[in-house]
Amino acid sequence: MYQLVLNRDIYLKVVQERIPKARHHVWIVTADIKDMYVERYGEFVPFLELLTDLVSQGVGVRLIHAKEPGPRFREDFDRYDELINNELFERILCPRVHTKAIVIDGREAFVGSANLTGAGLGSKHADKRNFEAGFLFDDEESIAELVAWIDELYLGNHCRSCRRREFCPDPIIDNL
To answer: Residue 85 is part of a domain; what is its CATH number?
Structure first.
């Protein structure tokens, strides 16, 4: 399956429909990261609450982002001790990341323009959100390639040859 997903449908089909059904892991790669709310049980809550629920169910969450999160995201994050002190939640910062991708259980993936922000992937009203586009797919070969690439980022395989090291506030590999 390859499906073009646009605008608010990204929130509905990826964030609302698929991420909560993850059973093994959710990997999120984003350039920008800000507070983002999702509808759950009739109310709007921080996306971090959904991630906390997943982690408490044994689902690993990997978050790779390019810059420091916005202040409201950081405030929300500090309220979720289950994420801060849990080995199932992994977070790294790499200023060269410009990718926007979500991989769910290594079986489905979304790659597109939307960042992890309210106006990108969040529940914002259609008249207040960004114009976004992306593809949802389940092709095993493409997902395997994407997963391997995300693993390379996460493990810091690009750190040794990175020519932007001076701009990296939190190097993945410290001893180079």
So the answer is: 3.30.870.10
